Amino acid sequence: MIVYLINNTYNSSVAKLNDRSLLPITKSSNLIPHTYITPLLNRHYVKPKLKSQLIKIADDINSENNKHKLSYLDANFPFIDGFPLLPHLSHKDGRKVDLSFYYTKDKEVGNLKPSKSGYGHFVNPTNQEFNQTRECKSNGYWHYDYTKFLTLGSREDLEFDQENTKKLLNKIVEDPLTQKILIEPHLKKRMNLSNNKIRFQGCHAVRHDDHIHHQINE
Ligand SMILES: [Zn+2]
């Protein structure tokens, strides 16, 4: 913990120089890390305006249902622009953050986690839905689903909470600061989302039916 604090004090000063702030890590906030590995590895830095937006959305969500917080995954390092946070090549300027979907268990809601890391446990397309992963892999993008190896442990007893994930997505896209969000096409269709800020990331990236990629304007 001490090493973490010293490390973060140092990184906070670096971050200030680079117009980055730390996302909250305490349970008293409505914006929480999905896993504490994220702040331990300094992967929770964003531009101050993105931090304020996320806190506002998190508070809003919690005021509607106090069992829900907003859970973040990888954001950015505190360093200079252009330093990517692998494996997310675009997370390099403080404007990007990944967010968790919501899940339920026996109709009970909350910040439930099908995967410990927050990545690699997919909300697969049904047989009737378009299968982007099959399409990308058949076109040679073998890496498209490699995050399945990065779960750090997963569970199969949770159900995708379509209603609350849709509510979250709508709150994000309705905010003028939001530039775009990325999720898989079958989920956009399944949730009946039509806002053109919600896009497909392309086969060169990894599949986005395990998390939301969110980014703000310059
Ligand atoms: Zn991302």
Question: How would you describe this protein?
Answer:
By secondary structure, this protein is an alpha/beta fold. It has one domain: Muramoyl-pentapeptide Carboxypeptidase, domain 2 (2-Layer Sandwich), CATH 3.30.1380. Helices cover 29% and strands 14% of the residues. The protein has six helices and ten strands, in the order H-E-E-H-E-H-E-E-E-H-E-H-E-H-E-E. It has helices at 2-17, 37-40, 48-64, 132-138, 162-174, 185-190; strands spanning 21-22, 31-33, 45-46, 70-72, 96-99, 103-104, 159-160, 178-182, 198-199, 212-216. The protein has a four-stranded mixed sheet with strand order 5-10-8-9, covered by helices on one side. Helix 6 links the parallel strand 8 (178-182) and strand 9 (198-199). The relative contact order is 0.15. The mean pLDDT is 91. The structure holds zinc ion (ZN).
Annotation, overall tally of beta strands: 10
Question: What would you call the shape?
Answer: globular
Q: Helix/strand-derived class?
A: alpha/beta
Question: What quaternary form is this?
Answer: single chain
Bound molecules: zinc ion
Sheet with the most strands: spatial strand order = 5-10-8-9
Task: Sketch the major β-sheet.
Answer: 4 strands, mixed
Low-confidence stretches: none
The third-level CATH topology is Muramoyl-pentapeptide Carboxypeptidase, domain 2
User: How much of the polypeptide forms β-strand, as a percent range?
Assistant: 5-15%
SSE pattern: HEEHEHEEEHEHEHEE
Number of domains: 1
Rg from alpha-carbon coordinates: 17 Å
CATH architecture term: 2-Layer Sandwich
Percentage of helical residues? 25-40%
The CATH class designation is Alpha Beta
Average of pLDDT: 91
Ends apart, CA distance between termini: 34 Å
